[in-house]
Each structure stands twice: as structure tokens, then as C-alpha cells.
Amino acid sequence: MDTRAAVTAAILPVLREFFPAAGEKDLLFHGGEDVASPLPRKYGLDSADGIVYNLMNRVKFRGVPLFSAVRIEDGFIDMTFGPEAMVLIAEDAAQSAAVPAESYELGANPMCLCAMLMTAAATAKAEDPFVPEGLARRAFLHTVFASSDPALAIALRETAAALSAHRRAKPGSPERLGCLTASAMAGALTEWF
Asked: pLDDT by residue (tens digit) across 86-133?
């Protein structure tokens, strides 16, 4: 699975039309937004004509528009994934899910959380939402797009908190991790063990 690389490859060609030197490091997957970029601030761009339109209408992931919202604020481009794109991102990540070893150390480590996520996926109810909100959404995105040890540490902490909220939440609640969400997160964590 290289979901992060596929999403990055979809975004960069459009950004490079406005910022020719744009690279992978100009896309931030671990901020407050789904994806953010400091390119307007970095290059002192005052006018954003065309950037929002092109990102909304030309960036696709497996044939589906990637973003449901794009805005430029305080020198940052803030991008929000659309629900259809979230499903495709989750399907991509879920392909890597592997069963953890029979014995492993308990705690907030990839193997233990992967086992808990696979249990959550196996016991998910039909009314559990696919597209999570709040903490569950952040945990999902940060887990799927983690690409370094510090990013993984954030993802593990958020995943543990999301699993705790999942266990207490009622079916249909946005705190619940649906089957595909939990499988995708487990698939992403599989990459780390």
C-alpha cells in the first residue's frame, strides 16, 4: 500500500502549475485539515486565482474528485477529502491488513492496535458510519498517511483514543469506526510491523 504516494501524485501536478518547485514536503497530512500546504505563504503569493478551482475540479483519485472543499486562509491551502474519495482511500489502505502474530506486547503499539482494529472491523454494525468525524476522522487520516516515526507516534496515540471512544459509542454514532475505516487503519498499521 502506498496510499500517501498515490494521493500526493494526484495533487502535485496541479500545485506545480502555480508553484513549479512544489514537492512532497509541501503537503502536510498531520495538521488540523485533511491536507494542507503552505505554498502561498512560502512564495508570498497574495492572489489565489485558479488554485481553488483547479484543486476542486481537476484533482482526482481513482477517477473520483479528491476534495469536497478547498480554501486558502492565512497563506495555507486547506483541503478536505470528499466522502467518495475517503472510501477509495480506505479501500486502498485496507488491502494491506494482515493478522498480527498470536502473541504481542499490549499497549499503544502497531501490532496491538492492529489487532484491536481488526476486532472492531469484525464486530462493526451495518449502521456504523464509514466516514468518521472528529477524533475518529483524524485518527483514520493520520494512521493512513503516517510516513515517519513521529507521525506514527501521533497516529498511534489518536488510534488508541479513537478505539476507546469506539467502545463506548452507540451504533450509528460518528465516534464508531465502521468496518472499512477500522480495516484501513489496520492495513496502514500493518506497514509498521
From this structure: 999 999 888 876 665 565 566 778 888 998 999 999 888 877 777 778
The gap from C-alpha 47 to its chain's centroid, in whole angstroms, comes to: 29
DSSP 64: E
- The string of DSSP letters for 7-53 reads HHHHHHHHHHHH-TT--GGG-BSSSSSSEEE-HHHHTT----TTHHH
pLDDT digits (tens, 9 = 90+) for 38-77: 999 998 876 667 899 999 999 999 999 999 999 998 889 9
Alpha-carbon span 32 to 16, nearest angstrom: 23
CA 130 – CA 137 distance, rounded (Å): 10
Please tell me the distance from the alpha carbon of residue 174 to that of residue 103, in angstroms, as a whole number: 31
